[in-house]
Amino acid sequence: MHSFSKNISAELCREGLINLKMTARVLGVLLLFEAVLLGIAGGVSLIYKEGDAIYFLYSILITVACGLGLMLYGRKAMKMMGRRDAYLIVGISWILFTLLGMLPYRLGNYIPSVTDFTTTGASILDNIEALPHGLLFWRSLTQWIGGLGIVFFSMALLPIFGGSGQLLFMTESTGVKHIKVHPKVAVMARYIGSFYIVITCIEGVLLWVGGMEPFDAVCHAITTTATGGFSTKQASIAYWNSPFIEYVITVFMFISAVSFPLYVLALKGRFRTLFRDDELLWYMKSVLILTAVISLSLIFINQYDVEKAVRAALFQVVSLHTSCGFATDDYAQWPQFTWPLLLFAMVAGGCTGSTGGGVKNMRLLIAFRAIRNQFRQILHPRAILPLKVSGHIMEPRILTTVLVFIVSYMTCLFLGWLLLMAMGLPFMEAISTAVSAMGNTGPALGAYGPAYSWAAMPDAAKWLTSALMLIGRLEIFGLLMAFYPGLWKEH
Question: How many other C-beta atoms can be found within 10 angstroms of the C-beta atom of residue 62?
Fold first, then answer.
């Protein structure tokens, strides 16, 4: 065993701190997977006999060539993956998927500027219905894959790279305890992925029954479960003016922002887990309180009838709390005191282990209980006050990481807000756009609210918000670690 360890250490020293060949090989496999997804969207173009099919073909060829090139470079890689490799793979893969995923739009000149691409719900399109069906489907499918996130990485990679893929599973969620539904991460990933597919199909059927065309139902189902929020209509969900559709989407947005492992445990007979999870209870209370306050303001100030007020408030609170970004009402026209409540919902986001963005409710819960414990400690200096969540004591290491994450998140948010104001955005537009971008929500307030797109935003601001979106989606450290010198130098 000692000789084996020495040989491995010597090999790693020769390879360097980063296993570049393994990193390249993994990225190559992922790009081939993206080529398959491009083929599915291209198939939709062929079904509707539209001209964008040729651009999907070109995109597939380019993506396959890049994937095979990376796999060729990594063909003799050591089958070992460290934490550094995992961070590098996750960060680079999102950038590569974005660059190659925009090819069908770019080659067909449907979106002429490279600056104008995103998968988080912030749209720069002012005439969405003008896009062919293949591109509309690809636009939605990229959100579905983005929402699946690290589950997708795990399912794609674990059979190839063995247990080392667990590092990839953990990289996107920093400093939060994970719920294990199975000792093997590969099996857990398949459980979660299967549930993700099932709820997408159920919602699609319900939307179709509710009056959507099959194509629209599929696109909205996959962008709802991904909590992404891209619609096939410029007016978003308001286009259908259907309470049934709004309630269905509200329910599935809420479901998709709950930790998926909890559902898997419930389906395996452990139903009490759902009701004992402190994060889920915190999330539910937050949604209910925000909805109640905003509903009352709409009834008494904006003169909405009760049902419309509750439906509009509930839909918008859930949409922003889950980082989905769908819209049925222009909340920029709501009473101004409701705007900070909506911004809080954007910052809070969904639960850990879900497709939701934001800080995540678990981190807010841990921070709140740490503050409460500090007050108790002041009153009782000699007391030992462990911080508990769902009956489990949080290790000091987890608390430290959570607090560092929140401070880092708010720092990025503040810098983004400051830079956006320097680029000419007004105060409210700047702060709401920064919050929306970091939370991966989409619509902001004012000129960039749900009634408008981000098309008029300066190009520099679009690049900045794109960076904020990526930083927020990769939980800050997943991307910024690549810029930390120690990743490349320290042993």
Answer: 16
Average pLDDT over residues 293-321: 96
Sign of the torsion angle spanned by Cα atoms 146, 147, 149, 154: negative
The residue with tokens 């409701």 is 338
11: pLDDT confidence band, cut at 50, 70 and 90?
Answer: very low
Q: How many CB atoms lie within 10 A of CB 167?
A: 20
Give the pair of three-digit tokens for residue 78.
Answer: 């050591």
Nearest C-alpha neighbor of 168 from the set 98, 226, 83, 79? 83
Alpha carbon of 11 to those of 8, 15, 80, 365: distances in Å?
5, 6, 11, 44
The model's pTM is 0.88
Structure tokens at 80: 């070992």
CA angle 235, 239, 243 (to 5 degrees): 130
Please give the pLDDT value at position 181. 56
Torsion of CA 439, 264, 175, 81, to 10 degrees: -100
> Which pairs from 20-23 meet CB under 8 Å and 24+ separation?
20/74, 21/73, 21/74, 21/75, 21/76, 21/77, 21/78, 22/74, 22/77, 22/78, 22/79, 22/80, 22/81, 22/85, 22/161, 23/74, 23/85, 23/88, 23/89, 23/92
**Residue 112: alpha-carbon gap to chain centroid:** 26
Region of poorest pLDDT, from 162-176, 225-239, 299-313: 162-176
Q: Tell me the mean pLDDT in the region 367-390.
A: 90
What span, in angstroms and rounded, lies between the C-alpha atoms of 449 and 444? 4
Residue 124 has pLDDT above 70, yes or no: no
